[in-house]
Amino acid sequence: EDYFVSKGISNAKLEVEWFLCHILDCQRIDLYVQFEQPLMKNELNQFKEFITRRIAGEPFQHILGKADFYGRDFKVNKHVLIPRPETEIIIELLKKRNKIESILEIGTGSGCIATTISLENLATSIIATDISRDALNVAKENASQLSAENIDFKIHNFLQTDINSTFDGIVSNPPYIDSDEMGSLQKEVQDYDPKMALTDNGDGLSFYRRFAEVGASLLNKNGFMLLEFGGAHQVEAISDIFESHPFNIKFHNDLQGNPRIVEVNLLIQ
Q1: What is the largest CA-CA distance in the chain?
Q2: Considering only CA atoms, which of 112, 103, 107, 97 is closest in space to residue 61?
């Protein structure tokens, strides 16, 4: 733990516990109940390998091959964005609505949002798209492993290709980082999260412009969008993007009190 702290890893104790639990196939409480149990040589070697990889900057989720989202483990690798706790706000906001018939997710990545919507019984049918076939393979595997059944995964380039269906709701955690800000991200994000899931290679607002442009044609009456974005510095720009279209918008904060989700409601025509 001290070694991790000295290397700037803030969650030091928890990460050490997670590594040990993974290697020993046990719960965190077992580490303390059975604290006298020695590590076998192969277990110790694996633990040392995990430590070395973590110190080199590899995210602990990649080392373990999984990440938590809304209380469930999702497979993650270099092809998908590691799920963040802030994104769970989308699920909480959906829970406040009456049951939704149809939902479209743009940029599904690991499939954590679509799969959680399915397992929490928040929509009858879900279409989840991504531009990356590798990401879709991970998403399909996660949905299958967690027995989510009402999701149709499709490869699709949202910025360039139209969608000829309508939905009650659209959800997305799109690439929203300005390409000029990529260099200031944490090393583990820069080096291990897929670049196409982080930035649109422009000002980080391309997806919101596209949502504003095509949203009305994709939504049923009383339709809505829940879109994650980068925080307070993007609020004004996102407001400007949507205000010239038939929507009203509302911002929702994350657990740190920072604006994180924009709720876009279609004005009744």
Answers
A1: 69
A2: 112
Q: How far is CA 36 from CA 13, 33, 39, 48, 225, in A?
A: 18, 8, 9, 19, 52
Q: What is the pLDDT of residues 101-154, one digit of tens each?
A: 999 999 999 999 999 999 999 999 999 999 999 999 999 999 999 999 999 999
Cβ–Cβ under 8 Å, residues 225 and 167: no
Separation of alpha carbons 111 and 219, rounded Å: 22
Q: pLDDT by residue (tens digit) across 148-197?
A: 999 999 999 999 999 999 999 999 999 999 999 998 888 889 899 999 99
pTM score, whole prediction: 0.93
How many residues are listed for the chain in this entry?
269
Per DSSP, the residues of 156-174 read --TTTS-----EEEEEE--
Both tokens of residue 166? 């309508």
Locus of tokens 């004004």? 236
**φ and ψ at 247, to 5 degrees?**
-135, 155
Q: Using CB atoms within 10 A of its CB, is residue 125 exposed (0-12), middle (13-18) or buried (19+)?
A: middle
Cα 49 → chain centroid: 27
Q: Is 261 helix (H, G, I), strand (E, B) or coil?
A: strand
Neighbours of 100 (CB within 10 A): 19
